[in-house]
Write a structure and sequence with these properties.
- The structure holds 2 protein chains of 2 kinds.
- By secondary structure, chain A is mainly beta.
- Chain A has strands at about 5, 10-15, 20, 25, 30-40, 45-50, 55-60, 60-65, 75, 85-95, 100, 105-110.
- Chain B has one helix at about 100, and strands spanning about 5, 10-15, 20-25, 30-40, 40-50, 55, 65, 75-80, 85-95, 105, 110-115.
- In chain B, strands 2, 4, 5, 6, 9, 10 and 11 form a 7-stranded mixed beta sheet that branches. A 4-stranded antiparallel beta sheet of chain B has the order 1-3-8-7, with no helix packed on it.
- The longest helix of chain B is centred in the C-terminal third of the chain and has 5 residues, at about 100.
- Chain B is mainly β.
- The chains are: A mainly beta, B mainly beta.
- The interface of A and B includes residues 8, 102 and 103 of A.
Chain lengths: ~110, ~120
């Protein structure tokens, strides 16, 4: 079945540092890919998505590019802020079916 | 305000005592689903529903039941809870076509369950 693998956290950065959270997937066909963010005490919120190869999703300064050749969808941000501290989940949705498959989540902690 | 609500937010119970976690959405969404979140495992889907009276198993349905008698409500039922069902539970909804069409889901705030 489909699976999503993320780098384990926590990732601890200083404010204004560059962020990369790695995500790779295995899926049949051509999945759509997503990043969700979970702030403390809240449910998940969609951060960005990409539905086909080479698409770049972006939102709030975060970006991720759908790389089919490396089956990856790494999340990046050029300059993180304390308010970006959260847990980030990578997810995929396959061609068939109606389910999202989530990675294990990566906790980001940004220090002032 | 468009939202997904869950009740209760926190629950401590004992093994074998039936419980229900309610989920309600006010966005007229057809698709609803339940997930459990466990450390290192991310979110795993328990059940989902494409519409009223239509439910399907997710990845980890054992020990759970759901029903979808109305569009807005999708309760999660644990007939005989066990300690391995201690987890954080999220309900989510999505517009017509569900995940297959939209991919995005709107999540509730979560219900933290402890089974002793």
């Amino acid at each position: 079945g489909d699976s999503v693998t993320q780098m384990e956290g926590p990732v601890t950065l200083s404010e204004e540092a560059f962020l990369t959270i790695n995500c790779t997937y295995t899926a049949t066909g051509y999945p759509s890919l997503f990043w969700y963010v979970q702030y403390p005490g809240e449910g998940l919120q969609l951060l960005l998505k990409a539905t086909k190869a080479d698409d770049k999703g972006s939102n709030k300064g975060f970006e991720a590019t759908y790389r089919k050749e490396t089956t990856s969808f790494h999340l990046e941000k050029g300059s993180v802020q304390v308010s970006d501290s959260a847990v980030y989940f990578c997810a995929s949705r396959g061609d068939a079916g109606n389910m999202l498959t989530f990675g294990g989540g990566t906790r980001l902690m940004v220090k002032p | 305000e468009a939202q997904v609500t869950q009740n209760p937010r926190y629950l401590i119970t004992v093994t074998g005592k039936k419980l229900t976690v309610t989920c309600s959405q006010n966005m007229n969404h057809e698709y609803m689903s339940w997930y459990r979140q466990d450390p290192g495992l991310g979110l795993r889907q328990i059940y989902y529903s494409m519409n009223v009276e239509v439910t399907d198993k997710g990845d980890v349905p054992e020990g759970y039941k759901v029903s979808r008698k109305e569009k807005r409500n999708f309760p999660l039922i644990l007939e005989s809870p066990s300690p391995n069902q201690t987890s954080l539970y999220f309900c989510a909804s999505s517009p017509s076509g569900g995940v297959q069409r939209h991919g995005t889901q709107y999540f509730g705030p979560g219900t933290r369950l402890l089974v002793l």
